[in-house]
Amino acid sequence: MTAVSDSPTAAPTASGRRRVLVAIGTRPEAIKLAPVVRALQDRDRLAVRVLATAQHRQMLDQVLRFFAIEPDLDLDLMQAGQTLSDLTARLLTAVDGVLADEQPDLVVGQGDTTTVLATALACFYRGVPFAHVEAGLRTGDLGAPFPEEMNRAVTGRLAHLHFPPTEGAAQNLRDEGVADAAIEVTGNPVIDALLWAAEHGDLSDEFAPPSGERLVLLTAHRRESFGAPLLEICAAVRELVRQRPVRVVYPVHPNPTVQATVHRELGDEPKVQLIEPLDYPRFVAAMRAAHLVWTDSGGVQEEAPALGKPVLVLRDTTERPEGVTAGTARLVGPSRERILAETLRLLDDDAAYRAVASAVNPYGDGHAAPRIAAAVERFLCGASAAAGETAWRGGAASR
Ligand code: UD1
Ligand code: UDP
After folding, report:
1. Nearest CA to ligand 1 atom 7
2. Deepest of 4, 75, 89, 383, by most Cβ within 10 A of its Cβ?
């Protein structure tokens, strides 16, 4: 197993502590980086600062509140209906200013958002090492997901440390020429967050459906789903609630395009609840109450298998093939026909349902964050500094 080696340039500062800046922009980054922030703060040799770019506002604040993380710096960048170019330009300028002021020894970012791309690029321009959490995910198609596949590929090219969640993601990085010494397979800290929420959150049964009904939990927000794909998904919802005793709960992403389409297409359906984005423990409770999950989200594809919930991926391709291989996730595309066929099969055939509804966890064991923190400390302070968890070896460990 590969492990991140120490930095050749590591030298202690006057205080002896090295400065680590954690950059967080959107809801999924906050969920996945919250355990990482905590684990970094547990390391005596690191001084940790949290930067909220606030690419998202309300959804970011919701998560930060739950995990009790107060950013040290907040760029407050979100604008309603922001375009990719405008957001990227504003982020690059603002993050550069933060790097100039803060002089971090290393910056940590996660995933494939505009925040991670702009932060990694700003670090590259200033010669600041960048550590990439959830590295190595690829579909191989720059158009799907758009623009996230480009964001993570470019970020991977710029990063000094790579923390892929699985061995498959690590292999993607090696195939692109990343040195083994810069890679550590850690698992995905989303599982750390999920376990934390299950332990500390108030997971009420408010989403339990009335007797005789089943709950389908739906999220769909991706840019490449705008237009015809989202209309297909909405059509599948309408048909499903007519054909079976099913209630659909859909926390609708605040993106104005998503809001307008979904409310127009599903607003009048009595068995469909269109609701505001849920705070994290309530969303976990909704996943637990669900019979099935329909989603185009990345994070939800990782969480649902861990909870033993079959998940239909409303996309044609995924950078998370491990859930599909394990059997709990199925790629059905944004296709009304395929979504319905697979849903009816799982609703009507108990044996088929049981075959896929077992809890498997290909994305981590809940200890990704301490592994990441140990590797960061090793990079900055030298090998003797950081006793850490042993590397995540992947596989489908049952919970
Ligand atoms: C971004 C990420 C996507 C991720 C998603 C998580 C990029 C390119 N995309 O997409 O990978 O899956 O976040 O949800 O970075 N808005 C609000 N309040 C909020 C958040 C968003 O009103 O708290 C609205 C605003 O009008 C904003 C719009 O949603 O302009 C789009 O937000 P943006 O971050 O640009 O894109 P997402 O579609 O959220
Ligand atoms: N999530 C949440 N509330 C909701 C919907 C989703 O807390 O109403 C969580 C979900 O559990 C997952 C994350 O948000 O951890 C996924 O974020 P999103 O779908 O916005 O982004 P993606 O993962 O697709 O990048």
Report:
1. 113
2. 4
Q: Give the model confidence (pLDDT) of 58-82 as tens digits.
A: 999 999 999 999 999 999 999 999 9
- For the stretch 94-123, pLDDT in tens is 999 999 999 999 999 999 999 999 999 999
Counting ligands in written order, which one lies closest to the CA of residue 116?
A: 1
Q: Which of 6, 29, 105, 112 is catalytic?
A: 112
The ligand placed nearest to the CA atom of residue 145 is 1
- Our mutation pick for probing the ligand 2 site, out of 57, 297, 313, counting the most ligand atoms within 8 A of Cβ, is 297
Query: What would you report as the CA-atom Rg of the chain, rounded to the nearest whole angstrom?
Result: 21
| CA distances from residue 221 to 1, 257, 296, 314 in whole angstroms, order as listed | 36, 9, 7, 10
Residue 223 annotated as catalytic: yes
Write the CA distances from 8 to 3, 97, 108, 109, integer angstroms: 15, 27, 19, 22
Q: Is the pTM of this model over 0.85?
A: yes
- Rounded distance between C-alpha atoms, residue 128 and residue 181, angstroms: 18
* Distance of CA 299 from the midpoint of ligand 2 (Å): 6
Q: What is the pLDDT of residues 226-257, one digit of tens each?
A: 999 999 999 999 999 999 999 999 999 999 99
